[in-house]
Amino acid sequence: MAVLLITNIKQLIGTCENPSLLQGKNLSKLPLIDDAFILVEDGIIVDYGAMYELELKVPHLPKNIIDANAAFVLPTWCDSHTHIVFAQTREEEFIYKLKGMSYAEIAAKGGGILNSANKLNDATEDELFNSAYKRITDVSKLGTGAIEIKSGYGLTVEGELKMLRVIKRLKEKCSIPIKATFLGAHTYPLAFKENHQGYIEQLINEMLPVIAKEKLADYIDCFCETGFFSVQEMETIVQAGIAVGLKPKLHVNQLNSIGGIPLAIKLNALSVDHLETMTDEDIVSLSHSGTIGTLLPTAAFFLRMPFQPARQLIDAGCAIALASDYNPGSSPSGNMNFVVALSCIQMKMLPQEAINAATINGAYAMEMENMLGSITIGKKANLIFTKPVPSLAYLPYSFGENLVDKVMINGSFI
Ligand code: NIG
Ligand code: FE
Fold first, then answer.
1. Does ligand 1 come within 6 angstroms of the Cβ of 131?
2. Closest ligand 1 atom to Cα of 331
3. Would the CB of 150 count as within 6 Å of ligand 1?
4. Which of 198, 246, 304, 346 minimizes the number of CB atoms within 10 Å of its CB?
5. Can you say how many angstroms the Cα of residue 139 is from the centroid of all Cα atoms in its chain?
6. Partners of 150 in the beta sheet?
7. Ligand 1 atom with the shortest distance to the CA of 303
C-alpha cells in the first residue's frame, strides 16, 4: 500500500465532501482550506485538512512525505470537449483567415473539417495514436487530468471507426481517464453533399452497430448548424445513438440559433457545447433543464466570434462547464489554464466560477464526478501544484504565464 502525505499546502482548493453539479450562484462557491495537508493512498485521496489538524487526523505519519512548499493545490482540469485525435494541423487556413476569409467560406472551399478528414483518412492508426498520445501528455503537464475526445474527422465508415479505435487505445494506455464521443455527424462528406439521407443511413446502419458492438463510444454528438446538420437531421441521428446506449453531448449554437437547444433538452442531452449564439429563450430553457452548457471560449477567441454569454447563463441559473475544444481548426490549443483566464478576462467569470466550471462541472459533463473534479475523500489524487503565487485570483490574472509547477496523476507526479 503506497501512502503519501503532502504537507504545507498554502491553499487546498475545491475541498468538498458532497459535491454536486453547480448551477447559477452556486458556481462561485469554491471551498478551500488554508495551510493544508492531503493524504493519498494508492492514488486515491483518503484524507485532507488543515495542518493544525494533522496530528489528530494522521497520528502515524507515513514514510513518504512531500512538502508542497506553500503551493496552491487544485483538482486537475476536467476537459470535457476536445477533438484531440487529428492527423495534421491547419495553420495554412489560419493564414487565409488572417487575409479575410471566413470559417464558413473556408469550409465551403473544402477546407475546414473536410481538410482534416482527408488527412485523417490517409493516416495510419499508429500515427494517429502517437500524435494524440503526445498531445494528451502535453496537456496533462498543463494540468489536465481527464479528457473527452470526439471522432468526426473520419466521415467514412473506416475513418470514423479508425478514430474511435484510436480513442479506445488511448483510454487503455493513458494514465488519465478518457471518454469517447461519436461525432460522425460533424459535416457531410463531399460524396454525400447532395445526399444527406445517404450519409445519415451510413451513420445509423453501418457505423453505429459496430460502435455499439465494440463499445467504441460513450456519447453521440452532432454539429447542428446552418450548412451542417439541421435540427431534424440531428434528431434522427441522436435518437439512433440513444437506441444503442449513447447519451447525447451536442455541438449547438456556435454560429446560429436554429433550435438545437430545445431539441437537445428534449433528448436529455448531458451537455450542449459552444453556445456563442444564444437567444433569451435558449438561455431560459437551458436554465430549467438538467443539461450542462459547456462553453468553449478559446474557439470564440481563435475565430474572433462573440464570446459565450457566461454571465447571462450563470445569472439565469444554468450549470456551465468550461472546456478547450482542442482541435486543429477552431482551437489549436488544449491549455485549460488559458481557457480559465480567458473566461475571466472576456466573459467576466469570477476566478472561483471559472475554476469550478473547469473542474467539478467539467467532471459532470463527462460523468466522472464520482472520481474527479474536487478534493473529496475517495476521489483520484489528480492534482495541480502551482508555482509560488500570491493568491488564487493571480492564476487567471497573470494569463499566459505557466503557473503550473507539478501535476500529480493517480498519486504520482508526471
Ligand atoms: O468544435 N464546430 C465544429 N467543430 C469543431 C471545429 C472543427 C474544425 O474546424 O476542425 C469545433 O469548433
Ligand atoms: Fe468542438
1. no
2. 12
3. no
4. 304
5. 12
6. 181
7. 12
Confidence band, pLDDT 50/70/90 cuts, at residue 109: confident
163 and 310 belong to one structural domain: yes
How does pLDDT run across 113-132, given as a tens digit for each residue? 999 999 999 999 999 999 99
148 CB burial (10 A radius; 0-12, 13-18, 19+)? buried
Question: What are the tens digits of pLDDT across the range 160-170?
Answer: 999 999 999 99
Nearest atom within ligand 1 for CA of residue 153: 10
318 and 175 together in one domain? yes
Identify whether the C-beta of residue 149 lies closer than 8 Å to the C-beta of residue 80: no
258 domain-assigned: yes
Tell me the C-alpha distance between 170 and 165, whole Å: 9
Same domain, 35 and 180: no
CA–CA dist 5, 397 (Å, integer): 30
Name the strands in the sheet holding 271-274, side by side, starting at the edge strand that comes first in the sequence: 77-79, 144-150, 178-185, 219-224, 247-252, 271-274, 292-295, 320-322
Q: Is the pLDDT of residue 379 over 90?
A: yes
337 within domain boundaries: yes
Phi/psi of residue 252, each to 5°? -135, 160
Least confident span in 106-110, 113-117, 118-122, 409-413: 106-110
Q: Is the CB of 111 under 6 A from ligand 1?
A: no
The per-residue pLDDT for 106 is: 86
pLDDT(108) > 80: no
Q: Is the CB of 308 under 6 A from ligand 1?
A: no
pLDDT for 135-144, tens place per residue? 999 999 999 9
Cα 36 off chain centre by: 29
* Closest atom of ligand 1 relative to the 274 alpha carbon: 1
Shared domain check, 170 and 185: yes
With a 6 Å cutoff on the Cβ, whether 112 touches ligand 1 is yes
3-state secondary structure of 23: strand
Is there an atom of ligand 1 within 6 Å of 260 CB? no
Range of the domain at 15: 3-76+374-413
Query: 250 alpha carbon to ligand 2 midpoint, in Å?
Result: 9
Residue whose C-alpha is closest to residue 139's, from 412, 409, 367, 399: 409
